[in-house]
């Protein structure tokens, strides 16, 4: 990220002293500050009931509803002794939605609110390194996303009796898609946080976009049944490919027959997530400011 933006302040006075202090910070201090910020971010996250319900528990609740509602529906596909049921398909969908909501929605609203209510301005007056601030956000995102995924997988296996893959290769696929998605959505969350002009408008601006992207990316509806023009739009965006990668990791191999092109395309998953991570990083670096302007 860019250096601290102190508005119109010059290099003298308090702002100048902070800038000098920042330049003298050692790498070890940055990591210690980052660890402290992770702790602070986690405490703040756990104290916000809206974040716990609409970000952490929301995918688990939705999966439970969908899995219960479609438990008696005939399998979507039966081939070579393998079945693909509706609850099967909603497990990778909710895993993808969980990382997406935690990164883009929660992180975007958090940073926009902190800018609007003056939290970032107060942090700008301290020697806290910019990198430590963002490492704190990413650390909180990593820990809460891992806990959410573990809870979702536990509910799927213990409550609904879904079987998880036994092939180590599938688990490796799940791991790299999960962490690539986390990085991608984290930087995109920082980028979209620059759009809202106030704390009150943060949710109103970000939530509708997040909801629409989930519908057109095959989270709530099977991707293959969407119109071609919606598929073309969604294929330009990362969420549809995260869902595809999650399905490749968790569903029986015959489930590829339900995909567009009847194949798993993990190379494109990696390319799209990598490209969006770079785009998000560049946009975030160019637009992030400690202090709101105008």
Automatic annotation (TrEMBL):
Subcellular location(s) of the protein: Cell membrane; Membrane
Membrane topology classification: Multi-pass membrane protein
Entry's transmembrane regions: 51-70, 90-112, 141-162, 174-193, 205-226, 269-291
Keyword Cell membrane (UniProt): yes
Keyword terms: Antibiotic resistance, Cell membrane, Membrane, Transmembrane, Transmembrane helix, Transport
Coiled coil: none
Principal location listed in the UniProt entry: membrane
Domain ABC transmembrane type-2: 50-291
InterPro entries linked to this entry: ABC2_TM, ABC2_TM_bact-type, ABC_2_transport, Nod_factor_ABC_transporter
Pfam families: ABC2_membrane
Family note: Belongs to the ABC-2 integral membrane protein family.
Name of protein: Transport permease protein
């Amino acid at each position: 990220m860019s250096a601290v933006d102190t508005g119109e302040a010059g290099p003298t006075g308090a702002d100048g002293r902070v800038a000098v202090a920042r330049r003298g910070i050692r790498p070890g201090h940055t990591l210690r500050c980052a660890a402290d910020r992770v702790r602070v971010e986690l405490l703040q996250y756990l104290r916000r009931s809206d974040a716990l319900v609409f970000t952490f528990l929301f995918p688990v609740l939705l999966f439970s509803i969908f899995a219960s509602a479609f438990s008696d529906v005939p399998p979507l596909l039966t081939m070579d002794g393998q079945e693909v049921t509706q609850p099967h398909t909603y497990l990778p969908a909710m895993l993808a939605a969980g990382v997406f909501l935690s990164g883009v929605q929660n992180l975007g609203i958090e940073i926009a609110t902190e800018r609007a209510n003056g939290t970032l301005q107060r942090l700008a007056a301290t020697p806290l390194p910019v990198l430590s601030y963002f490492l704190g956000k990413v650390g909180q995102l990593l820990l809460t996303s891992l806990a959410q995924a573990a809870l979702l997988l536990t509910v799927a296996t213990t409550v609904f009796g879904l079987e998880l893959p036994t092939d180590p290769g599938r688990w490796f696929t799940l791991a790299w898609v999960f962490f690539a998605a986390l990085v991608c959505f984290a930087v995109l969350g920082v980028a979209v946080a620059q759009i809202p002009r106030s704390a009150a408008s943060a949710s109103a601006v970000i939530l509708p976009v997040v909801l629409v992207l989930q519908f057109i990316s095959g989270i709530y509806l099977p991707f293959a049944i969407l119109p071609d023009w919606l598929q073309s739009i969604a294929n330009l965006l990362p969420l549809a490919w995260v869902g595809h990668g999650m399905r490749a990791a968790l569903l029986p191999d015959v489930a590829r027959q339900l995909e567009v092109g009847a194949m798993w395309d993990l190379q494109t998953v990696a390319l799209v997530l990598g490209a969006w991570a770079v785009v998000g990083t560049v946009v975030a670096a160019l637009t992030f400011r400690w202090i709101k302007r105008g």
